């Protein structure tokens, strides 16, 4: 029986390589996704800046945004050369900036173009090509719309779909509102699996507790978690034992924090990275614990930026000890 996939969603401005390194400390088996990288950024920009990642992040998938088959094939090949384990095409982002580039969720209106993009990538890659999409766009709420999209794209060589179980409203809602206002319709994703039993489907949207994950895994091949994984990262420490049948993650929160301090020191030495740009990703680590608010305030205090990370950690734990 094929192993189920539990993944952390691609999230703009959040799931950079520092965030993924942090998440990997808590789960050895979760699949981690990059932020969306546009083909334009790779064709015309700084490739190492966009594609560099830490070896510890594996398994890690590169999400691309674009709609030109030749450009996507070129960028997908770059992703494979840099060592990514999967290339994912974004057909779900509703932002106006992405729409102006004629990709993201608006591509669901053009399944033939998406199929051409997928085929162009599949033809040049050895690693899997996957597609992340919505269940519909704007007021199109018929199941047939998403069914036909999946059917046409799968014929081009994609056998794995990650489905955000909401419509994307391309006009009138911000990306944040698009993650909250259109209703979740999980049943449509379950129906896709029923109608395409030979394809693999992961579900995304509004999933925040183990019970939900288990319920979806009874019917689907995977679950993708977004904001809850970012804001409540210690949840990931349960995943290896809970969903993969693996040994429990052995580290304490304090050990994870200390390892992140080591990483901050390394990043500063090798790349000149400010530790504050790394620490922002771990501010949810102590959610729900005594002293968590003061701990976050210390790690977020701009006056601390000149101090070494391990020293900041020691200062952050003073209010934690007082609250204990």
Q: Between the first and last Cα atoms, what is the distance in angstroms?
A: 46 Å
Order of helices and strands: EHEHHEHEHHEHEHHEHEHHHHHH
Could you name the ranges where pLDDT drops below 50 across 5 or more consecutive residues? Answer: none
Full CATH superfamily name of the largest domain: Aldolase class I
Rounded radius of gyration (Å): 20 Å
Percent strand: 15-25%
CATH fold title of the largest domain: TIM Barrel
Query: Biggest sheet: strands side by side, in what order?
Result: 1-2-3-4-5-6-7-8
The backbone outline, from C-alpha atoms, is globular
Structural class: alpha/beta
The level 1 CATH classification of the largest domain is: Alpha Beta
The count of helical stretches stands at 16
Helical residues, percent: 40-55%
CATH architecture of the largest domain: Alpha-Beta Barrel
Note the main sheet. 8 strands, parallel, barrel
Write down the domain tally.
2
- Mean of residue pLDDT values: 94
Task: Give me the oligomer status.
Answer: single chain
